[in-house]
Specification:
about 200 residues; alpha+beta; Helicase, Ruva Protein, domain 3; Tetrahydropterin Synthase, Chain A; GTP Cyclohydrolase I, Chain A, domain 1; 3 domains; three-stranded antiparallel beta sheet; two-stranded antiparallel ribbon; 8 helices; about 55% helix
Length: about 200
């Protein structure tokens, strides 16, 4: 299939990717716009993984206050102060602060959770499911898989990077950050956050 300028322009408007990247993706997808978007997304994730090694010491601290009742501060880092001043980066920082206020995460990523907390959650889930499955004749490995799934669900609830993004639940906060990484070409790290609520 011949890739037209109009097709490239349409894909570019949707994804914000470069002209050559859009053309290559459309050629690989045989003109299928949805598949081309997926190819560009996968390419962006691969680039984000490579950039994760690079040091990010610039960026900004963003604040968000909701109706004077709850607020958050987030520190988001990038590699250069130039990217730290771009509208995309500022919007990302704002969205992350808003996510902290709305979704109440406790940790940035699973690695930040103390081992004793994970063990406690795992043990509580095991006890619950042992009681529920006591009469079901399910093998122990099924119980362990159920417990592991519950621990993963726990990560999604308490870890900011694993939470569904409040403005688009089809992607996680990490997916949102990866999209900005692919747009800016720099490593971006959510370093830390603090959440405040009136009388809490």
């Amino acid at each position: 299939m011949v890739v037209t300028t109009e097709m490239i322009k349409e894909l570019r408007e949707i994804t914000g990717a470069g002209v050559l990247d859009c053309k290559t993706a459309l050629e690989s997808a045989a003109g299928d716009l949805d598949r081309a978007q997926e190819i560009l997304r996968e390419k962006g994730l691969a680039k984000a993984a490579r950039r994760a090694e690079r040091e990010a010491k610039q960026g900004l601290v963003e604040a968000y206050v909701h109706m004077g009742k709850a607020g958050a501060l987030v520190e988001v880092n990038c590699e250069t102060d130039f990217v730290g001043r771009t509208p995309e980066f500022k919007q990302l920082a704002h969205d992350l602060a808003m996510q902290v206020v709305g979704a109440r995460p406790q940790y940035v990523k699973p690695e930040d959770i103390p081992p004793e907390v994970i063990e406690e959650v795992s043990e509580q889930e095991r006890q619950t499911y042992r009681a529920q499955l006591a009469n079901s004749n399910k093998p122990p490995d099924v119980l362990e898989r159920i417990v592991e799934n519950k621990v993963q669900k726990f990560y999604e609830e308490v870890c900011l990077l694993r939470q569904p993004f409040i403005r688009d639940p089809d992607k996680t906060v990490q997916d949102l950050i990866n999209e900005v990484i692919s747009t800016t070409g720099e490593n971006i790290v959510l370093r830390r956050f603090a959440r405040f609520e009136l009388s809490e």
